[in-house]
Amino acid sequence: MRDSCCQSNFDSSDLNHRQRIVLIIVLVINAATFFMMVLAAKISGSTSLLSGALDNLGDALTYAISLIVIGAAPFVKARVAMFKGLLILSSALVVAYVIILRLLQPETPVFETMGLAAIVNLVANLSCLLLLTPYRNKDVNMSSAWECSRNDVAEGLAVIVAAIAVWVFNSGWPDLVIAFGLLIMFSRSAIRVFQAAWHDLHLTTDKTKVDA
Ligand SMILES: [Zn+2]
After folding, report:
1. Within a domain: residue 7?
2. Residue 147 Cα, ligand 1 centroid: separation in angstroms?
3. In a domain, 1, yes or no
4. From ligand 1's centre to the CA of 7, what distance in Å?
5. Distance 3 CA to ligand 1 centre (A)
6. Number of structural domains in the chain
7. pLDDT tens across 161-186, in order?
8. Within a 13 Å sphere around the CA of 99, how many CA atoms are in the beta-carbon half?
9. Are 56 and 32 in contact (CB under 8 A)?
């Protein structure tokens, strides 16, 4: 299975000024959508919104780190990547906990709030995709950001499907199913990033020992 998202940090030092500005805008959109989704998840009682928010958090962190650690030493980059992996995995545990709570105490999310937030999220994902599209073939990092953004649109659609199914069946089950699916997909890519960072960290510390 492919990565659900762009969880691996990249080196943005080769990017030009305009590409960097596009990444900053995409970062801000993802961060804003993350807070909106968490708030809407709380108000509506939707778990799939919360699961989807994890992805926005991961993306915002990925772009932030890629822009901030330009030119940093490899061991610094590996440490920052590991910190990001830990942060995302602990957030994933919180979402898993909420899913279990909902399984024990089923509740039908408020369809209107859930649907509205899902639409805003999809529009945000589509805007990121459109912003990145002119650069998709210009640079390997930009094209990977574009691909992630395309996956985000698919994930955004999944949350909308969940909202529609909640309305049609008047039940919380579709919400939990989509929430669980997104969580699995997302945790898999987060674990992969964490393993890669762990590997890099050992490689760089070993190298430092050899160099010393
Ligand atoms: Zn994403």
Report:
1. no
2. 9
3. no
4. 8
5. 10
6. 1
7. 999 999 999 999 999 999 999 999 88
8. 23
9. no
